[in-house]
Fold this sequence. Notes:
single chain, 324 residues, alpha/beta, Rossmann fold, 3 domains, 10 helices, 50% helix, globular
Amino acid sequence: xxxxxxxSARILVVDDRPQNLELIQAYLEGEGYEVIxxxxxxxxxxxxxxxxxxxxxxxxIMPDLSGYQxxxxxxxxxxxxxxxxxxxxxxxxxxxxxxxxxxxADDFLSKPVDRIELLTRVGSLLKVRHLGKExxxxxxxxxxxxxxxxxxxxxxxxxxxxxxGLKPPVSGLALEGAHVLIIDDEKAIRxxxxxxxxxxxxxxSTAGNARDGLNKVRETPFDAILLDVMMPGMSGLDALAxxxxxxxxxxxxxxxxxxxxxxxxxxxxxxxxxFIVKGSKVEAIVHSVRRAVERYRLELRxxxxxQELKRKIDExxxxxxxxx
Length: 324
């Protein structure tokens, strides 16, 4: 499971109800995470600043400060603004989830908390967090090498362009041109989702069965995939396993008729990014796709930038060796 890749991660869990804290703590510690707890918003802000955890799980309804207020203050503190925050709420209205995003939350989780969904969302955000930290360390090392190079600038062999010319290979996280694949055996569903996503500026391809969808993934790069869980022939779960081999980093959103079905939970366990329920409001569908594309493009950008930074480091190390 994704969570196992970051067992050393420290997670701050914030909830005013002891039973909620104990449940989430048990789930996380069972996967090897170190858990810090806080019972209210003020304690959460203090512990976040003191402990600088890798991720924060934040309840919405608390007696002193709401989860939204705490999230806004966390994101307004430059020292800890980069720590990902998952809002945990028993309020299921789309408006509440929108409030979480406006407050700066990176994701949200509905109560009652499902263990698999919790660990999947935590693992996904920790992966991005880990990549960001690796970028920071690599960039710091690059600056150290560049500073050392400039200290020896009098040597004629060191006259190469400065590091300041390095530019990220991907510009921003704009969603323009994002390409989404919809795999569903019901033409009406494919057409509805396609028309909806096209109206929001996405490029959309469709497939009427899993094998056709897999062939399209082999031929074309996608930013996100919507996959029906129940299809004749190859099922959505079997297709998910194949998709994770063909395009392991592309987020897959499961389309299901029942959010509590074993199929939806199994899909999350096997690497699905999220699931949406057939008949969901437009906002829920668009929101899930947007989050998937943003997360994918952030991970892609960070990976490419990290590769570029490491290439630059190799160049500087070669120059340093030649100057000895």
